[in-house]
């Protein structure tokens, strides 16, 4: 007995640009569209371009892809462009939908002049088709557009093949991926009679670009991720998910940014589309679909014990289910069957009695789950079993919970854990479920609820006895409860009191656990919190603990605050080494600590940024494989891209990213970085000439609590100095002096160096001479602070001390390359924000082409802006521009 294998999906490509596409005006109210209405923005512009090129060259094309991937829209847009460019083009549209073998050649009836005479005789029909096509073509060109070619009856498909091979007609046909290897389509492609273009599933980056263009404004990363996951890679389902979110107001505007606000969304339109897809499935196929709706994902061999192989073949060809090869726990492989979209399961389960669902679910629960199956399907099947009151094995619940964490579905974790707790006996199992639910609530920023979960888990574990497993769980509970207390209270001492209370039963029992050095684990938790509180006096103890006996997964969490403390003290090379080492450890132990990789990535980002390694900063933000998601708070992602844009002098882009981060921070500040992000956004606004907004952002930052991120306080103060510099504030020297004194008192050598540089630069701008004492101190700091940016700061101070204008300009260009852009020396000029941005980049030595690539503009647009800048400033070259701006 055999069954068809699903074809491998087209490889996904990643966009590395952090820029925002051209935006359309934001809709003031949600617009209602029919399921077949085309979106306003092109989902796959690259595919449209390829179609235009191929069809324009006279080639016939097969557009191949799964249902909903945007084949129809791409073809429609391409033909619209060709029609606009060629007045003599005639397009004839036929569709395989609704045709069947009972009416041979019925799909081609629109091409016949007299269907009654032609149909019934193949030779006569082919002659009539050729004649009809020739008449419609006339003296121009004719393109036959075939929608859903996989639904054509066999006679129509064969006749169409003959016409294409004879060169009688040029065809562009859409075809399901599961049919691409079948006759006559595979033969046409193999013989190079037609060109084949494959449309793969949407990547997250493609979805983001479309969302920004369609909604007319920036979209937060968590919103993009949620909608992309809901779409399953389908362009059509993404469009419908956006519609449902707008109608239900789960998606709304905040400070000009589209933010996910939560709440239930309607699924009726998605279910209608699923019903439409399933109309052509046979009764045998529908019976098999009922089984798949309950048990999938499931091993193919198990499924074939429940349904006929022919029914599985039918569902594969219809694109309803897919089969993939997944590894097993024993090192082998197994074929796994899963539904292509959850909507099919929702439709089919409506037909199935609860008793039948329980019977089928029990079969799937008894079968092992292979690695690599779709996380959403596993979550769905376990949730259904819990809803039906079934006894789900703890291992299966744990697999579903881990799967939900992996795809950032924290609300699913809460739902699954809550359901499992209803029947879980008190003890370690219930404690683990409370802990997992608390972890998810932390990521959902439900800190009060998370605190209750951790408190309950600690109560359940306190009586003991303590073996390695229960002690490890209690230590994790203590760590997370301490983190929540620190973030809620902003007081590290009160947070550490929570830690002491939770671990007290463990200390009193004092168990001998040779493989778990639990006292070291407690000390690591203590040092983590002190590190994030900005206590540089604990740095030596933290470095010793990184080499200590605590579990490597626990030491991963200590590495980020330690690396940032090293960065503040000027030991950037050592901080980078810590990040590099523990990035590998975090990857090896991500099953123990799922946040580890994200935490280390954030620390690595700042270490590289402070070192002035801007290219390496961009590389650290490059997208990773969708199959290996990194858990990191979403607002941090936007803040990081905003800081990178500031380092590259892309002020408008920086404002977009940082405003998006602010929209997330307005909902909640999980990381404690809101104050930092607001200060950085103020710098970008001031550099763009928006002084009122910059001052308002600085005031907001001053009112924002420091929270649990005091480790960043030094850099916050430096960012504020930069904002004051661009605002040309008379208070800059006074504040720079205060920051330098503050940094020296706490041993933050790098922060002191940055503050002294701004002090001396501000003195120069007001016509003063550098203080020799300050210059000497800068040299001393340069001897203890490593990294290219620190070296560039010292070089710039030396040039100012020597009063060498040319040397100072060269040193300032090196500062640009290391991420620091100083305001121009002259008085403010009447440049627009975009002109100021382009002028600054040009003054920094960038070519028009490089500026265009960075800002996602055309080279002509950049040159046009520069010509206006030259006219306003009265200069005639980039060298003169650099002189006047610097």
UniProtKB/TrEMBL annotation:
Domain of life: Bacteria
SUPFAM superfamilies, alphabetized: C-terminal effector domain of the bipartite response regulators (SSF46894), P-loop containing nucleoside triphosphate hydrolases (SSF52540), TPR-like (SSF48452)
Signal sequence bounds: none
PROSITE patterns (UniProt xref): HTH_LUXR_1, HTH_LUXR_2
Residue ranges, compositional bias (Low complexity): 13-39
Keywords recorded for this protein, A-Z: DNA-binding, Transcription, Transcription regulation
Domain HTH luxR-type: 824-886
Gene3D superfamilies: Tetratricopeptide repeat domain, Winged helix-like DNA-binding domain superfamily/Winged helix DNA-binding domain
Region annotation Disordered: where it falls in the sequence: 1-39
Pfam families: AAA_22, GerE
Keyword DNA-binding among record annotations: yes
Name of the protein in question: AAA family ATPase
């Amino acid at each position: 007995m055999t069954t068809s294998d699903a074809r491998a999906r087209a490889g996904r490509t990643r966009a590395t640009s952090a820029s925002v596409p051209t935006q359309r005006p934001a809709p003031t109210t949600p617009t209602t569209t029919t399921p077949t209405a085309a979106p306003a923005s092109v989902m796959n512009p690259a595919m449209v371009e390829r179609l235009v090129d191929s069809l324009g060259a006279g080639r016939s094309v097969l557009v191949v892809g799964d249902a909903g991937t945007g084949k129809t829209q791409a073809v429609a847009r391409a033909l619209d462009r060709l029609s606009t460019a060629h007045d003599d083009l005639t397009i004839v549209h036929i569709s395989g939908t609704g045709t069947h073998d009972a009416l041979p050649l019925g799909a081609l009836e629109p091409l016949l002049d007299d269907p009654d005479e032609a149909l019934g005789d193949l030779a006569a029909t082919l002659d009539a088709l050729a004649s009809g096509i020739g008449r419609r073509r006339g003296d121009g060109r004719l393109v036959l557009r075939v929608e859903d070619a996989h639904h054509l009856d066999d006679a129509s498909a064969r006749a169409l093949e003959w016409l294409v091979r004879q060169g009688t007609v040029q065809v562009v046909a859409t075809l399901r991926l599961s049919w691409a290897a079948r006759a006559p389509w595979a033969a046409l492609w193999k013989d190079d009679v037609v060109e084949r273009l494959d449309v793969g599933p949407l990547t997250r980056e493609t979805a983001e670009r479309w969302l920004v263009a369609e909604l007319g404004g920036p979209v937060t990363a968590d919103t993009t991720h949620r909608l992309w996951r809901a779409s399953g890679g389908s362009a059509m389902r993404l469009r419908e998910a956006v519609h449902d979110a707008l109608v239900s107001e789960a998606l709304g505007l905040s400070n000009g940014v589209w933010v996910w606000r939560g709440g239930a969304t309607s699924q009726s339109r998605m279910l209608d589309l699923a019903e439409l897809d399933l109309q052509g499935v046979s009764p045998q196929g529908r019976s098999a679909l009922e089984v798949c709706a309950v048990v999938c994902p499931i091993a193919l061999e198990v499924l074939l014990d429940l349904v006929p192989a022919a029914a599985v073949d039918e569902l594969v060809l219809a694109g309803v289910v897919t089969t993939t090869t997944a590894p097993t726990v024993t090192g082998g492989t197994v074929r796994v069957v899963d539904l292509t979209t959850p909507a099919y399961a929702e439709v089919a389960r409506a037909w199935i009695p609860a008793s039948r669902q329980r019977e089928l679910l029990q079969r799937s629960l008894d079968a092992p789950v292979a690695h690599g199956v779709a996380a959403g399907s596993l979550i769905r099947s376990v949730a259904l079993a819990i809803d039906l009151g079934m006894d789900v094995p703890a291992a299966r619940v744990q697999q579903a919970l881990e799967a939900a964490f992996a795809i950032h579905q924290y609300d699913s974790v809460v739902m699954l854990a809550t359901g499992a707790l209803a029947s879980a006996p008190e003890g370690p199992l219930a404690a683990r479920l409370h802990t997992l639910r608390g972890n998810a609530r932390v990521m959902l920023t439900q800190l009060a609820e998370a605190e209750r979960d951790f408190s309950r888990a600690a109560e359940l574990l306190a009586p003991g006895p303590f073996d390695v497993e229960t002690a490890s769980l209690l230590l994790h509970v203590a760590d997370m409860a301490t983190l929540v207390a620190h973030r809620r209270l902003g007081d590290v001492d009160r947070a550490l009191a929570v830690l002491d209370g939770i671990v007290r039963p463990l200390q009193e029992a004092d168990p001998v656990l040779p493989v778990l050095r639990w006292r070291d684990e407690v000390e690591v938790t203590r040092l983590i919190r002190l590190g994030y509180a900005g206590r540089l006096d604990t740095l030596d103890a933290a470095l010793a603990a990184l080499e200590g006996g605590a579990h490597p997964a626990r030491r991963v969490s200590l590495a980020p605050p330690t690396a940032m403390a090293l960065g503040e003290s000027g030991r950037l090379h050592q901080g980078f080494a810590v990040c590099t080492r523990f990035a590998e450890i975090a990857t090896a132990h991500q099953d123990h600590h799922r946040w580890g990789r994200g935490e280390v990535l954030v620390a690595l980002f700042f270490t590289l940024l402070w070192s002035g390694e801007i290219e390496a900063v961009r590389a650290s933000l490059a997208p990773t494989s969708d199959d290996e998601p990194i858990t990191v708070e979403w607002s941090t992602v936007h803040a990081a891209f905003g800081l990178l844009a500031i380092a590259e002098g892309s002020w408008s882009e920086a404002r977009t990213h940082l405003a998006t981060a602010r929209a997330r921070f307005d909902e909640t500040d999980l990381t404690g970085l809101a104050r930092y992000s607001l200060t950085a956004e103020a710098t970008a606004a001031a550099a763009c000439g928006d002084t009122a907004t910059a001052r308002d952002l600085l005031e907001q930052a001053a009112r924002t609590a420091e929270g649990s991120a005091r480790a960043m306080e030094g850099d916050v103060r430096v960012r504020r100095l930069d904002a004051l510099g661009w605002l040309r504030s008379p208070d800059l020297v006074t504040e720079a002096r205060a920051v330098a004194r503050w940094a020296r008192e706490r041993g933050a050598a790098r922060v002191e160096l940055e503050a002294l540089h701004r002090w001396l630069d501000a003195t120069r701008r007001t016509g003063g001479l550098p203080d020799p004492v300050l210059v000497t101190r800068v040299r001393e700091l340069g001897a203890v602070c490593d990294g290219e940016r620190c070296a560039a700061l010292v070089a710039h101070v030396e040039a100012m001390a020597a009063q060498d204008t040319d040397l100072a300009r060269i040193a300032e260009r090196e500062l640009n390359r290391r991420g620091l852009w100083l305001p121009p020396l002259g008085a403010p000029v009447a440049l627009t924000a975009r002109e100021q941005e382009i002028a600054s980049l040009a003054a920094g030595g960038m070519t028009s082409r490089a500026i265009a690539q960075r800002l996602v503009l055309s080279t002509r647009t950049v040159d046009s802006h520069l010509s206006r800048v030259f006219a306003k400033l009265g200069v005639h070259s980039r060298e003169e521009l650099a002189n006047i701006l610097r």
